[in-house]
# Entry
Amino acid sequence: MIDTEKIKEICRIVRYHILTSTTKAGSGHPSSSLSSVELVCTLMFGGFFRFRINDPGYEGNHRLIFSKGHAAPLLYAVWAAAGAIPEDKLLTLRRFDSILEGHPTPEFKYSEAATGSLGQGLSIGLGMALNSKYIDKIPYNTYVLLGDSEMTEGSQWEAVQIASHYKIDNLTGILDVNRLGQRGETIYGRNTISYEKILRSFGWDTEIIDGHNIDEISAAFLKAEKTINKPFMIIANTIKGKGVSFLEDKEGWHGTIIPGDRLKSALEELGPIDRNIKAKIKEPEITGIPEKDHGVKIPVKIPQAKDRISTRKAYGNALVNIFKDHTSMVVLDAEVSNSTYSEIFKKAVPGRFFEMFIAEQNM
# Structure
């Protein structure tokens, strides 16, 4: 059973860090971060997300991508709550010499990818999930935190199609529908049904929840874990600026920090902070990583330099030739393999070739 009260306490700590770090920095996106607090804290500290914090490179770790990259203060705050980084490090947010940049980058070792540009995180997560299910076959889950504004990006829907096509059941999207974008209301506002209809039409399983209700969030993650042969999207109705009354659901606060003279009153609204609460992330259940079998078969004859062939056929042959020395390689193609001659690689190593169809942005 999930400890709801403990997670509520952790959420208060995380909100405290979001507010103090952004005000100290003089920049950042506190309101965007606050709307996702319960979603991320329940995932990380409710037993769903599995990770060795002392070994962030461990291949059996679950993956968490903040496609909603401007919620970086939340990302850093939850890892501080987990004990991965010192709390005082948070007060270096956005400083020139700090690893805690305005948007996540791999400079921060608990960040899976650079997500400064919106609309890329779901494609990145899809790649990781494809790897888990079909290539390395390591049973980790991939979670992607998404903002409702970025769901108008075409690349997201390219990823949605491909995830369904490949039956990626180890990929969970967490869509934070907080209604407000940078300049006002998003395309659907609070109409979560619209998101659900579109996603289900693409073959995803979905669950609409109150994104601040820990029990509902927990139940959605449990449902996602049990879903077979379909990707899963949690569609969370949230409030931008949650926890601070003068921020909540208000326009004009995107990318705006709480001024120092109002920080005290904002922190008081959070209630008492219990510093003795220990937030713990469960470790992966797998104790060993299975040996990778790339099924290397190279039946293709590589042309000699004296042979005159087209550059595109040389490209197809080169892929196979390179693979002999780099067997971790994967080839993606946008429905032109008979033109680019990447079909040569597909015939040689079919298990490491993925058809992306004409979805170049996702690819």
